Amino acid sequence: MPCRACGDAVTQFLDLGRQPLSDAFRSPDDVSDEFWLHLKAVVCHGCHVVQLADPVPVERMFHEEYPFRTSSSRRMSSHFAATAERLVAGLAAPDPFVVEIGSNDGTMLATIADRGIRHLGIDPAANMVGEALARKVNARAEWFDAVTADRVRDEFGPADVVYAANTMCHIPDLPGVFTGLETLLADDGIVVFEDPYLGDVLRLGSFDQIYDEHFYLFSATSVARIAELHGFALVDVEHLEVHGGELRYTLARDGRTPSPAVGALIAQEGRERTHELPRLAAFAAEVADRRDRLRDVLDGERAAGRSVAGYAATAKSATVLNYCGIGPELLPVVYDTTPEKQGRLTPGSHIPVEPFPQDLADYPDTFLLFAWNHAEEILAKEQQFVDRGGRWIRYVPDVRLG
Ligand code: TMP
Prior knowledge:
By secondary structure, the protein is an alpha/beta fold. It has a domain at 61-277: Rossmann fold (3-Layer(aba) Sandwich), CATH 3.40.50.150. 34% of the residues lie in helices and 22% in strands. The protein has helices spanning 58-61, 74-89, 107-114, 126-134, 146-156, 174-184, 198-204, 220-229, 260-271, 277-303, 315-324, 375-381, 383-387; strands spanning 10-20, 36-44, 50-52, 97-101, 118-122, 139-140, 159-165, 185-196, 216-217, 233-240, 246-252, 308-311, 334-335, 353-354, 366-369, 391-394, 400-401. It has a 7-stranded mixed sheet, with helices on both faces. Strand 5 (118-122), helix 4 and strand 6 (139-140) form a beta-alpha-beta unit. It is globular and about 65 Å long. The chain binds thymidine-5'-phosphate (TMP). The site of thymidine-5'-phosphate (TMP) has 16 residues, from helix 11 and helix 12.
């Protein structure tokens, strides 16, 4: 299939095998056939964006039972409060209008709503839109596309800011989104979006950033090229530490001068050969090696009679569990704070997801840390586990037990 962003030819560099939908947590009595896709990553020769080779069924992924909740991490909540303050500080129009695509439970827009600023959240997950409405955020359960953009502009007027976090990379029909942005954005408006960064994935070997919902893995180079195809320019870029390393991109179409950070990062990506096949093939080799070493560590814990549990049933963990062939025999349980995931089974690998034990005595000997992107928050919270001899298995930035 040609590149979904620009139509040019692509080349495959990574095969992560058969994978389930990463957020399809099954009830233990569900015997229906599970949906599988073949997870392969390709790079485009034209715009250089990394993407999945095969189409993903977006309606099956983002729906009224979508279990991911932005506010499940304290760090992410404060990240989005700070983001909202930044967006508000940049608003110059007399009666500004802010749109968030993929507004989830309204964590970011809650701050915008508190300031009395006109806003709208658009998200296909009706359950999360309900939670946003409950916190007085104006939101609608819809897909963002050219039709929605037209309707929103008719009703509210042009948007001064369109913001999206961990959403643009979810939408295979990126040209459709850009057509919507062309309609919705005020002439001097900005589009700000943040997503996992290809440069960090290569640097950290974080192959679990590749799963069904992460259709694209962007970089400064690829976003600049894709934006240009739609009459936008990449005018700023900022590295974020959240979610395992992200870039925040700012696009505009009013001819403003890009910040020096844009040229600097594109030059760095060129020097590091971020989009070139030998670099991507080296990453693929590292991924295979890490799978073998992670399995060795888990086998070692089992042989030594030490109990192991997964820490957080993240969407990313689906890639790790299914690619590495880890099932209940190596990892009998994964603990997670999300009520919608508890009492269910991890997708594909069918490991029971349970709430964290109340009592430290019921903790395992070793935790496999799936939420490595929240490591700081989690390690601080779980200091007592380490104090009484508990150990962590990590696989990013490398396989490590300790
Ligand atoms: P993600 O933000 O990497 O997708 O992962 C979020 C998942 O991790 C979500 O299901 C909640 C879970 N989680 C915990 O169970 N405990 C924690 O301390 C954190 C930060 C997340």
